[in-house]
Amino acid sequence: CYAPLFARIGHTQWTPDLIFFDQRNVVRPPNYYVQQLFARHQGDAYLPTTIDAAAAPPPPTLSGSVGVGSWRTAIEVAEARVNGRRLDPAAWASEGGEFRFVDDVLRQGSVDAEGAMSFSSESISGDTVTYTVRARKTAGAEGFLIRFGSVDGRGYYWWNVGGWGNTRHALQRLDNGVHSGIVLADAPGSVRTGVWHEMKVELSPGRIRCSLDGALVHDYAIRPVGLSASTTYDRAAREIVVKLVNPTTAPIDASINLEGKLRLASSARLVTLAGVRDATNSVKHPDEVKPMESSIAAGSRFTHEVPAMSLQLIRLQLSPDAGR
How far apart are CA 127 and CA 207, in angstroms? Predict the structure, then answer.
């Protein structure tokens, strides 16, 4: 089992990303199978792996709504601008916290709210976008959350200024409203209570730059999503295990070249976990996404199509006459 299970008769219990169940059903979401497959196909030794891919153009400039908020911190926002144009936070919507617009200042007064956010309904776009916020911390444990951009309409970015107990600044991507975002870049730093701070986020094709009080803190390049791979050797099975992950929505043609003097069998065992974006398993459809096994023609060199939105494991057996 990959996580503790807690049973209470008559109620569905959820262990994040692994198993949910009630008194009659057990359903394994796709992430359960991801962890299961990696655990069962670890191998004993990592083998050097390189990926040669055609250079891709940089992603377009991020677009989406902007906003400002805080984490367990009371703040005041005196001004927010996009490309020099002053925004009107009085018309912004809010989630969590205690937001009030008084005397031309947007105030968030709660020091208990985690992820309090006020944001515009306007979608900001352009070849380049500069978003600036002038704000100060009035009480609490941390600093500011500067929201911007979108992730395929399913999430967004924020710059966490003075996070982690006011010890770090971090650029994060948040998917599907999950507050514990992926850290893309971070640096030590803090903000001062009662002091007005100037924060700037500059967006250009494939790049995010974040500055605090005129000093550059992050310069992050958004890399195109593509194929990931790793290779291990399973001594007991005498097999080479190639793991391939395609997070894109289109299949990828791969040419696999296993360098070395060992001879490999002409076919390989293939395990595939694939599904459409946001596919999941449910009580009604518990096997919507599950591992499927097959065999493919292989060897030291072969071509292979990696399906969209998939994890694949290719197990290549050493020929019986190959040395150990």
Answer: 11
Phi-psi region of 181 (alpha: psi -120 to 50; beta: other; left: phi over 0): beta
Q: Quote the CA–CA distance of 76 and 106 in Å, as a whole number.
A: 6
Structure token digits, residue 260:
């070395």
Phi, psi (degrees; rounded to nearest 5) at 198: -105, 120
Compute CA distances 246 → 54, 225, 240, 250, 312, whole Å.
15, 9, 20, 8, 9
CB 143 within 8 A of CB 213: no
Q: Which of 290, 283, 277, 285 is closest to 30 using CA atoms? A: 290
Average pLDDT value for residue range 96-103: 94
Q: What does the pLDDT look like over 113-164, one tens digit per residue?
A: 998 999 998 989 999 999 999 999 999 999 999 999 986 556 899 999 999 9
How crowded is residue 182: how many other Cβ atoms within 10 Å of its Cβ?
14
Task: Give the contacts of 319 (CB within 8 A, at least 6 positions apart).
Answer: 262, 263, 264, 265
Alpha helices in 126-265 (DSSP H): 163-166
- What residues does 91 pair with on adjacent strands? none
Give 64's DSSP letter.
B
CA–CA gap between residue 106 and residue 135 (Å, rounded)? 9
Phi then psi dihedrals of residue 214, to 5 deg: 85, -5
Residue 25 DSSP label: -
Residue 175 has pLDDT above 50, yes or no: yes
Neighbours of 131 (CB within 10 A): 24
3-state secondary structure 268-301: EEEEEEECCCCCCCCCCCCCCCCCEEEEEECCCE
